[in-house]
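input
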Amino acid sequence: MTAPDSDAALLAQLVAGDQQALRQVLHAHGQAIFAYALRRLGSPEEAQDVVNDTLLALWRQAVRAQAQASSLRAWLLGIARHKIVDVLRTRGQAWREVADEEGTLLANAADPDPSPLERLCLECDEARLAAALDQLPEVQREALYLFTYEGLSLAEIASIQQTPLATAGTRVHQARQRLRRHLSATGQALR
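output
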């Protein structure tokens, strides 16, 4: 994750038409966008298209992003979410999480540093955690993903999900409670 100051500098360079800044954005945030899209689409090709479309939107809307974005990563993920919904709409599908049978697709898309949720997976049975995550409503699962994997603030999540701040906080809180209840009921406690 890049620092907010360097994101501001990148946005200023983009507004000035610096294509090298776009490459730096790809380097800093491309993996996060790709992993986010891959989780929902299940297709590396479509996920890469989402990354490309998101960066194109940033290039075209650099002035707007500079004015609106408190976090470049959150702004990019918000744009990526719209691009994902467009792909799903084209497929005639609704928003969903995707996982391949071997877990390789998602494992290869994840950031190399373990997140809190990944550390949790190491401590508990991954199948039970996956089942518990599947029990969550989509909006709660998405909010938890953005909070846990991407490290976004509740305000950034609210912006991405286009919902009030309190709703974003409630979604993360309820997702954690449901996970805790489900894992406790199946003999595993969250630590």
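quick obs: The chain has two domains: 1-101, 113-191.
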